[in-house]
Design goal:
- The structure is a single chain.
- This protein is of the alpha/beta class and 275 residues long.
- The longest helix is centred in the C-terminal third of the chain and has 19 residues.
- 34% of the residues lie in helices and 15% in strands.
- Helix 8 packs across helix 10.
- The protein has a 5-stranded parallel β-sheet.
- Strand 8 and strand 9 form a beta hairpin.
- The chain folds into 2 domains: 164 residues, 3-Layer(aba) Sandwich (Alpha/beta knot), CATH 3.40.1280; 96 residues, Trp Operon Repressor, Chain A (Orthogonal Bundle).
- Bound molecules: S-adenosylmethionine.
- S-adenosylmethionine binds next to strand 5.
C-alpha cells in the first residue's frame, strides 16, 4: 500500500510512524508513506496556505489551491473513477480522505476496508478547517477519528495509518490476533464456534494477563492457570460480554451472539441486578 499525507507540518510524522508495526511494515515494503509539505505548493514569498473565511467569522481556513496542486503530481485516477473503481473488483483502488470532525466516524470495519486499497491520500486540515471545495470536488470521503475536535488532522492521519497498516497481510506476526480483537466481527458477521479462544464477533476483547501470577497481592484469575481450555474459553467469552455490557452496551446490538452467549449475558445482567 502507498499512503500520501498532505500537511503543513511534515515534521510531525517524524516519530509516530517510525516505531513498532508501522516501522516494520515499511521495512518489509508492505506500506510506503510519503509526506507532502503543503507550503511547497504555494506561490507567494510568505508561503501562505490559509486565508480569512468568506462571510466573516472566526479563524482562518486552509486555501484550496495548494491542496489541489499538491495532489496533481500524484497521478491519481479521477475522483469519479476512484469512486466507481471502489466497487469494481480487481481495479486499482485509491481513496482521497479529508480528515475532519464532520466526517464519517472511523471504525475497525472502515480500517479493514481501507486496508484492501492500493493507495490512500490523507489531507490534514488545520485552523478552522479546509475550504469546502476540497471535500466537494477533490476528496472521496471525510473521516473523523471521534467526536472531539483536534487542532489538526495530523494525529488523525497517524491513527488511520497505524490502524490500517496492522491489518495488511504480514504486518502483524500473529495474524490470527488481529481477527480476535475488540470490534472485530467474524467473517460475514457470524460467530464461529471454535475459531478462537473467544472469537470477538464484534465484542470488546477479553482481559489479558501475564506473569507473575501474583503481584502485590493481585492474583491472576485462577481459571487461566488450571489448564482447562474449554473453561478458559467460556470465562474469556463471559468477560468479553461483561466488559462490553459495562463499557459499550451499544456494541451488543450488532454483535454475533450464539445461544450460549445469550444465556451468559442474561446471567451477567441478573447478577448485576442482585448485587
Ligand atoms: N471548525 C471545525 C469544526 O468545528 O468542525 C474544526 C476544525 S479543527 C480545529 C482543524 C482540523 O483538525 C480539521 O480540519 C481536521 O483536519 C482536523 N480534525 C480535528 N478534529 C478531528 C477529528 N475528530 N477527526 C479527524 N480530523 C480532525
Amino acid at each position: 500500500m502507498k499512503a500520501d499525507i498532505v500537511t503543513i507540518f511534515p515534521d510531525f510524522f517524524r516519530g509516530p510512524l517510525d516505531h513498532g508495526i508501522t516501522r516494520r511494515a515499511a521495512e518489509m515494503g508492505l506500506v510506503k508513506v510519503d509526506v507532502h509539505d503543503l507550503r511547497e505548493f504555494t506561490h507567494d514569498k510568505h508561503r501562505t496556505v490559509d486565508d480569512r473565511p468568506f462571510g466573516g467569522g472566526e479563524g482562518m481556513v486552509l486555501k484550496p489551491e495548494p491542496i489541489f496542486e499538491c495532489l496533481e503530481p500524484l497521478a491519481l485516477a479521477s475522483r469519479e473513477r476512484r469512486l466507481t473503481s471502489e466497487k469494481t473488483p480487481g481495479s486499482a483502488k485509491e481513496s482521497v480522505i479529508l480528515l475532519s470532525p464532520q466526517g464519517e466516524r472511523f471504525t475497525q470495519k472502515m480500517a479493514a476496508k481501507l486496508a484492501g486499497l492500493d493507495r490512500l491520500v490523507l489531507i490534514c486540515g488545520r485552523y478552522e478547517g479546509v475550504d469546502e471545495r476540497v471535500a466537494d470536488f477533490l476528496a472521496d470521503r471525510e473521516i473523523s477519528i471521534g467526536d472531539y475536535v483536534l487542532s489538526g488532522g495530523e494525529l488523525a492521519a497517524a491513527v488511520i495509518i497505524e490502524a490500517v497498516t496492522r491489518l495488511l497481510p504480514g504486518a502483524v506476526g500473529n495474524e490470527a490476533s488481529t481477527r480476535q480483537e475488540s470490534f472485530t466481527a467474524q467473517e460475514g458477521g457470524e460467530f464461529i464456534e471454535n475459531a478462537s479462544t473467544c472469537g470477538s464477533g464484534g465484542l470488546l476483547d477479553y482481559p489479558h494477563y501475564t506473569r507473575p501470577a501474583e503481584f502485590r497481592g493481585m492474583a491472576v484469575p485462577s481459571v487461566l492457570i488450571n489448564g482447562d481450555h474449554q473453561e478458559i474459553r467460556r470465562w474469556r467469552r463471559a468477560q468479553a460480554l461483561e466488559k462490553t455490557l459495562r463499557n459499550r452496551p451499544d456494541l451488543l446490538e450488532g454483535a454475533a451472539l450464539n445461544e450460549d452467549d445469550k444465556k451468559l449475558l442474561l446471567q451477567i445482567k441478573d447478577s448485576r441486578l442482585s448485587s
